[in-house]
Design a protein that fits this description.
Elements (H helix, E strand, L loop, with lengths): L1 E3 L5 H5 L4 E2 L4 H10 L12 E5 L5 E4 L13 E6 L6 E3 L2 E3 L11 E4 L4 E3 L2 E3 L3 E6 L1
Antiparallel strand pairs: 1-8, 2-3, 3-11, 4-9, 5-8, 5-11, 6-10, 7-9
Length: 130
């Protein structure tokens, strides 16, 4: 797992919504940053989106619970919301303390993880690549 500090400003984070293209300025910049430490590729099926999901996610791998994303080798999570705007919502790897990576980026490959339930406004930028 790679951890990058301060990859976005709050103003940039506030402007992100829905599905994005990898050619957009912010995703392109983040892919370039990821490429400094890993062989990350934008492959068929790869996507970027902003998610707001109060129910969280159970333990899973990003290849999909039914193997529907076998191309996914690298995942990115960047918390867009300030930590004081929600409760819960920790991002966990097995045997880890929760991450609350506001404006920071996690890049990981093949690690099982989950997101705890949250209340309030928790938004995260997710990128799935080969």
């Amino acid at each position: 797992m790679h951890y990058f500090h301060d990859v976005l400003t709050q103003e940039e984070a506030n402007g992100l919504t829905g599905y994005l293209n990898f050619s957009n300025d912010i995703p392109a910049r983040l892919v370039d940053l990821c490429s400094t430490v890993a062989d990350v590729r934008v492959v068929d099926g790869a996507y970027v989106r902003v998610e707001e999901r109060k129910e969280g996610h159970p333990w899973h791998f990003d290849t999909g619970t039914k193997g529907h994303m076998p191309w996914c080798k690298w995942s990115v999570s960047c918390l867009l919301s300030p930590v004081d705007s929600f409760k819960g919502g920790g991002f966990y790897f097995r045997d880890s303390e929760p991450y609350y990576h506001h404006l920071d980026m996690l890049l990981f490959s093949g690690l099982e993880h989950k997101v705890a339930r949250s209340s309030g406004k928790r938004r995260v930028l997710l990128m799935f690549m080969g």
